[in-house]
Design a protein that fits this description.
This protein is mainly beta and 98 residues long. It has one helix at 69-77; strands at 2-7, 13-18, 37-43, 61-67, 86-92. Strands 1-3-2-4-5 form a five-stranded mixed sheet, with helices on one face. Helix 1 (69-77) links the parallel strand 4 and strand 5. The longest helix is centred in the C-terminal third of the chain and has 9 residues, at 69-77.
């Protein structure tokens, strides 16, 4: 699994986008996150390891969006993320097997 910190501006909110199977960060490059959020893309789920999660210091709120197989990855990794003040999940499944 890999992570790409697409936007880091020292905000206290973070949006993590878990992409679909076989995609790269470019699949979400056209998205414009909220101006007050830093933006992290999670992709390449061939190896899924909580140790791969980068440090997430100073985030009081973390928003997580899972798309397609990213829903599966989000479900497996969410319990291993550091505990900020608030987590919000949004899942966008595109397969009946998730």
């Amino acid at each position: 699994m890999q992570f790409d910190l697409t936007k880091e501006q020292g905000n206290h909110r973070l949006l993590i986008f878990f992409t679909g199977w076989g995609t790269t960060p470019e699949v979400a490059a056209h998205l414009t996150p909220l101006p007050e959020c830093d933006y992290l893309t999670a992709y390449d789920f061939r190896t899924l390891s909580p140790e791969a999660i980068p440090p997430l210091p100073n985030y009081q709120e973390v928003y997580m969006v899972g798309w397609s197989m990213g829903v599966w990855a989000l479900d497996r990794l969410a319990p291993h993320l550091p505990t900020p003040v608030s987590y919000t999940h949004l899942t966008l499944p595109t397969t009946p097997y998730v």
